[in-house]
Design goal:
Layout: H1 16-50, H2 52-86, H3 100-107, H4 111-119, E1 125-127, E2 133-136
Antiparallel strand pairs: 1-2
Helix pairs in contact: 1-2
Length: 137
């Protein structure tokens, strides 16, 4: 067993009746899934016996769809590879940390007033009608 497996498999730690219930329910779900495909398989069997050319056309169309899907997948992979190598990424510009004088210049307040507001437990901020800070208490 691997030291760091990707899939956690602890079925051997379960009691036997829980493992039995899990295995039985899994087998029943697979049986139901196969039974759901039964009508399609019957129709395909009847078509292959009566009209052989329709069956071959159906499988050739399916093969063509698979072929186009694989080619589209490869084209997308190549496009993403080229894009990641040749389109420059937008870099995030780091801004310098602001100091108290920068805040004072931006809001038009005295540095002492901002320092006093930072030291208080409760600070009242007064705004004008445009939302600009005009005074701190």
């Amino acid at each position: 067993m691997k030291n760091n497996p990707l899939i956690i498999d602890l079925r051997h730690c379960l009691p036997w009746h829980k493992r039995y219930a899990s295995n039985t329910s899994t087998a029943m779900m697979w049986a139901v899934w196969l039974l759901l495909w039964r009508p399609l398989l019957i129709v395909m069997g009847v078509l292959s016996l009566q009209k052989n050319h329709v069956f071959h056309q159906l499988f050739s169309a399916f093969g063509l769809g698979i072929e186009h899907g694989v080619s589209a997948l490869l084209a997308c992979a190549v496009a993403l590879l080229l894009w990641s190598n040749f389109v420059p990424a937008k870099t995030v510009k780091t801004t310098s940390a602001k100091n108290v004088s920068d805040y004072g210049q931006h809001f038009g307040l005295a540095v002492e007033e901002i320092e006093q507001g930072r030291q208080q437990k409760v600070t009242v901020v007064h705004h004008d009608e445009h939302g600009k800070i005009i005074h701190l208490e």
